[in-house]
Predict the structure.
Amino acid sequence: MTTNSEGQSMGTKCRVCGGRVAEFVDLGDQPTANGFLLPHEVEGEFRFRLAVGACEDCTMVQLMEEVPQELRYHAGYRYQASGSAGHRKHFRTDAEWFLANELTGPDPFIVEIGCNDGVMLSTIAEAGVRHLGVEPSGNVADLARAKGVQVLSAFFDADTAAAVRGAHGAADVIFGANTICHIAHVESLFRGIDALLSDNGIFVFEEPYLATIIEGMAFDQIYDEHVFYFSAGSVRAMAERFGFELVHAEHIAMHGGEVRYTIARPGARTPSASLDALLAEEEAGKLSEPLTFARFGRNVERIRDDLVGLLTHLREQGKTVVGYGAPGKSSTVTTYCGITTDLIPFVVDSTPGKQGHLLPGSHLPVKPPSAFSDAYPDYAVLFAWNHAEEIMAKEQAFRAAGGKWIRFVPEVEVL
């Protein structure tokens, strides 16, 4: 990596094609997003520079610096995909689609990369279909096993895939949800897909969408676990580079707007009209243009200033403000904005493993939902904004008590 006279990054090597990556936003020194802390663990907290750039050749948007995967996924990993009713419904629908359309042969087999707590594969297991989750975080893998899901505790790479193929045979479907963008070693990933996928099989993954982040100003989707920020154009280039073909892409509602991609062996499947439409949308919207990225960087700074200004104003007025939800992305916002307990004294979250801990980076205390209703605050910052509808429906008493919600994407506003 080279730097200019001010120490700013001027480029690094693309993890996909080896091209030059030009940085367009720097969110400062950040922690691992799901590295929730106990008070005595604050000293010596791991930090890295959270910055993002775009490859000038294949257009892949990616982190400039990478956190080792062992620091991101481990036995103390806090995220549980089944924690949201919306997630449970979505992944049951995914599983039912696979069962009806792809897992219909005499002895079908599906592999999920990063199965977390078994939120999708539990439906597959209930149907009696052969399956395997590959999950490196031991605690959530155990939760999946308790649901009857078969799990291999490992990182997915070429060696793991070869071992799975030897033990179970070829996979008809390889699936990943909010996981593939986490894997930095893309060459080994695709060698693994090549080793494990059947001739007519499909590799399906659904991930945060670059346009949602750029156009929707969802800068909090940028954190250590998200190494890549996919568009249809960059995924197509990545697939072709490693001997595959992108044959389908469609918008899905997860996390405020994701895209589900389907990759197959060249010529095995007919590319869909929705893929062509999405590629055309990206070109018309100049999604991968340097000016688009530069505008995004300026707008991120504006949101930071507006949010801190609002919270400071409310504090001066004597208003009470708490945070609602402690997803991984909340650490990006609170750390980048320099939000401390004098502005937001605590955050509430329904995940038991996060309660009693401190939010990474900002060290805001995380409390159970009961702390929210014990004495409703005047305002609540909606850190889990991608679950806004579900949360607001559940917390109608807060609104009835005069409470107001604060959103910060795509701009700071009081609801």
